[in-house]
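Single-chain item
Fold in token form
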Amino acid sequence: MEYTDREYCLEVWGDMACFTRPELKVERVSYDVITPSAARAIFEAIFWKPAIHWQITKIEVLNPIKWTSVRRNEVGAVASKSVIYIEDKRQQKNSLLLKDVRYRIWAKMKYCPVSKRNRDLFSHEPGKDENPMKYYQMFERRASKGQCFNQPYLGTREFSASFRLVNPNEETLTPPISEERGGTKDFGVMLYDMDFEDPENIQPMFYRPQMKDGVIIVPPINSEEILK
């Protein structure tokens, strides 16, 4: 059994997306680009097992960043055993969304130790009872056929995502957005993922992404660039 540290690429796109900023709780406002946690969720929607974790390594922005504003009705209550009168709880909220998004997302399949599945114990090597090639082949087969366990989405479930498995040797790959070429764009502090190490105290993790020539390099979860 030969273990190879493979890197996979998915091209994902959709009409609209909302990668919600957690600091803005009343109105929904999206980040400028997809977050690593949202990108990871797309890979997991296609293939996931308890023994593996998807580590996002790079995000390529293929379409220019465009915005749209939508006002819609939402229910300001959580359903419970008691009766909820929708008209009494209806709220109008404005959402600032992304439109016509397209990304190429690169990720590696990481293995967790067999005895512990904690997020801070990710390993480059599989456990003794794991077969890496089996997982590689399962993901490749599913992604190439467009199969998924649940419909991938772009930030929120109402914005479904289309996807395809990319062959890195393709000669007709769309280049990242050209308007950013020759310069670096700083997106400020952005949500990276959630830290589930302590189930009783789940904490958000952040990082400061910079896009150069339409490409964002995503640091690993144990990097000093990750802010907690």
About this structure: The helical segments are 36-46, 86-89, 132-145. Residues 114-124 have pLDDT under 50 and may be disordered. The longest helix spans residues 132-145. The longest strand covers residues 90-111.
